[in-house]
What we know:
The protein is an all-alpha fold and 180 residues long. It is built from eight helices and no strands. Helix 3 (46-62) runs antiparallel to helix 4 and helix 6 (115-128) packs antiparallel against helix 7.
Amino acid sequence: xxxxxxxxxxxxxxxxxxxxxxxxxxxxxxxxxxxxxxxxxxxxxxxxxxxxxxxxxxxxxxxxxxxxxxxxxxxxxxxxxxxxxxxxxxxxxxxxxxxxxxxxxxxxxxxxxxxxxxxxxxxxxxxxxxxxxxxxxxxxxxxxxxxxxxxxxxxxxxxxxxxxxxxxxxxxxxxxxxxx
Length: 180
C-alpha cells in the first residue's frame, strides 16, 4: 500500500507540473487509480484515504451534483471508520451532508428536517479541529440558510435575525482564535 500511495503522490505532482493538459489529466487519473489500489491492498491505508477524499471534495465542489456529494459522503464515512480521530473526515462528511440536504427535498428545496443533523455533524467537525475553517464557514452558512428560511416564511423575524447574528458570531469567534 505504501508503494501505491507514493506512486499516486508522484503522479499527482506530475499532473500539476506538466504544461500539456492531456498528460496532466492522464497523470491525475493514474494518481487516483494508484491511491485506490493502495486501498484495495490495505483498506485502512489512511494516506490513500486522505488523498482520495481531498480530490473527491475538490471535484464535488467544482462540479456539484448529488452523485459527487453522495460519493464524498460515503468515502468520508469509510474514512471515519478507519480513523475516528481524523477531524477532516468529519469535515468532509459534514460538507457532503450539507450539500445533499440543500437539495434533497421532494420539491428541490432544502430538506428542513435534516438541518439539525447537519448542524450536529458540523459541530463535531469543529470540536475535533477548531482551527479548520471549512466546518466553521459551513456552519455559518447553515445558520444563514436557516435564517433565510424563517424570513421567507415571514415567521419569527427576530429568530431569523438571531440566526444571522449567530452566523456572524461563529465566524468572529473562529477568526479571534485563528488570526491570519
